[in-house]
């Protein structure tokens, strides 16, 4: 990846992380851990990959993204706001009464949200439906779905996986965010979804592994995905839950907890430091 | 009586889809390995490229339907009521109902008249499950003519619609030439002043038969067909309560949460009136010929007559 583009994406991803912390802190609830682990991937998709237009969020041939792990809405909202779909300041209204930034994404009111999600395992089916739709009428758009590694414990995910391969939906890319943690602990301890790569391969998918926090690798993975023919693509990304805020990293306790004022100040100071270093680079 | 033509509303559903497929190019039909039984196979034969078999995976089928709807296509997701409303309930609620997507659910094999397959397949809960979802339209047609009309009406509603169809052939009581489907409007099929029988689905014909018999005993029963259970026709129910003072509801569904409950909701808030509910009395069904089961569970003209007489005598 060209150095200037990479630097810009890193800067944007840092701002996205600040938006996540801002939202969750003001909401006094929400899911920072899994939001931070997908921040780089979402930033890459919305700023460097997807054919989208914040000024015309519903145009017919846009690429679609379904956040199947809907509880990580703070990440999606922050990316959309930073991309210009709505004001970044609105992130502070997350989960408030009267705000359109619902705890889980609501497509009816939030520009840029392609599917309402929140109940795990369901978003991937809707994404499959969108991909199928494009195939049925020869539309050119692509569909991206973001799933959690805990989420794939839901049986519906595998119904969708079977169907997508059967229909050869090569316009579909499902990212599995393998941060290794779910509410009750390590995914390997709770009800292991491993081996994730082998499972998707066995279901007939083309599988790519990716470092979720390295834009060179993210670009490589999505470029490879684009070249796959006649198979849906699963990108299994190795990520760090809580990435970017030192005390949240790899801590299951930050799955669904908001920072208090002191923690918020530390997190924002860290992210500001990161931002400054990136800008000075 | 002239020869009675009988037809199962699931067949009406399949035929209507095949017919409307010509008029509506963005109509797609989804199945979960039951196209032969839901009768959407008729559509599949005519429009194979617009028929999507999802395999035995109803949850995923509903999600796919939601995804198709976001792109402007009109999906008809078809399965047995047990699986469409039961198994896939939460997907219908969260992926279709909450975003208010334009998905049509065609649920066949509803109620006890599934017959020999028994309790696991006899869904007496679907009306309750579907009418509780905000924004969901619920239609339960009584015969072939009404079922066909309901399918086209559903296309013209911008939002989710649940349609309930049966496996058993039932008499065609509406006249195709003059029938007009009005969403959310009950239909007074017979006027009367002593009591009103409000029926839905295959119980509508039973109610008409019962009313004729009751007339012989001097009981003048009004019969109302409620094909749209949600949004329900409050006016026709309130007028019936005010004018006849006694309501009997009849449905091939649990007495909990179905038409009877919907009627009680209207009356208790606006004009408290005695309502006697005929339906499946909080029990599971079992195997047997459909016609025998309907009689056994009291979903028959005989039971409507008996229940109505008792209620009128106690009025």
Report a brief summary of the structure.
Chain A is α/β, with parallel strands linked by helices and 281 residues long. Helices cover 44% and strands 12% of the residues of chain A. The model of chain B has no long low-confidence stretch (mean pLDDT 97).
Structure, explained:
The complex is a heterodimer of chains A (281) and B (315). In chain A, the strands form 2 sheets. A 5-stranded parallel β-sheet of chain A has the order 1-2-3-7-6, sandwiched between helices. Chain A is α/β, with parallel strands linked by helices and 281 residues long. Chain A has a single domain (3-280), classed as Rossmann fold (3-Layer(aba) Sandwich). In chain A, helix 3 packs parallel to helix 4 (73-83). The longest helix of chain A has 25 residues, at 3-27. Chain A is built from 10 helices and 7 strands. In chain A, 44% of the residues lie in helices and 12% in strands. Chain B has 315 residues and is of the alpha/beta class. A 7-stranded mixed β-sheet of chain B has the order 3-2-4-5-7-6-12, with helices on both faces. Chain B starts with 5 loop residues before the first strand and ends with a helix. In chain B, strand 6 (137-139), helix 8 and strand 7 form a beta-alpha-beta unit. The mean pLDDT of chain B is 97. Chain B has helices spanning 9-23, 35-38, 41-46, 58-70, 81-87, 89-97, 126-131, 144-155, 203-216, 234-244, 259-270, 290-296, 301-313; strands at residues 6-7, 27-31, 51-53, 74-80, 104-108, 137-139, 161-164, 170-171, 187-190, 195-199, 221-225, 228-230, 246-254, 274-280. The A-B interface holds A 60, 64, 66, 106-108, 114-116, 118-119, 121-134, 136-137, 139, 155-156, 159-160, 162-163, 166 and B 28, 49-50, 52, 54-55, 57, 59-60, 62-73, 75, 90-91, 94-95, 98-100.
